[in-house]
Amino acid sequence: YQGLWYAVAKKDPVGLFLRDNIVANFVLEDGTMTASAEGRVIILNNWELCAKMFATFEETADPAKFNMNMLLTLSYPPFGSQVDPHWVIDTDYDNYAVHYSCREVDYDGTCLDGYSFIFTRHPSGLRSEDQRIVTQKKQDLCLLGKFRRVEHNGYCMAQDETM
Fold first, then answer.
1. Could you tell me which residues come within 8 angstroms of residue 78 by beta carbon, excluding any fewer than 6 positions away?
2. Which residues does 109 contact at the CB level (< 8 Å), separation at least 6?
3. What confidence tens digit (pLDDT) does each residue in 112-152 have?
């Protein structure tokens, strides 16, 4: 699962969240998985910038579920942190991955506020053979039609070069 992943679609939670140009890099070192990610956000209705995140992961009893401890930095010092339970719904490790996270659980055990990403290893998007699988997983999650495309136009790379 290590390496670079490009978000190609996402279902947003309530509140501030990455909009586009989302790239994540997963690293396994000394038995510990970490990830760094960045993407464009808009705050205060019109201020665009690239947010950088760093995450560590805690294993759970379910091998497909992990807790992600995420630190969001819009600048220094860090903006905030949170712990989200995450599930890797499906992946072939080499081409696509479907992630899901529930930030807030309702009294009946259903998810009140959550988000989901569709990742690919390919900057140009999902391969045609993966699209059918990913569409079925969206339907399995009752999220078909809830995703929006994630654009990659180089915004964050351009921001990194100017700093």
1. 71, 72
2. none
3. 999 999 999 998 999 999 999 999 999 999 999 999 999 99
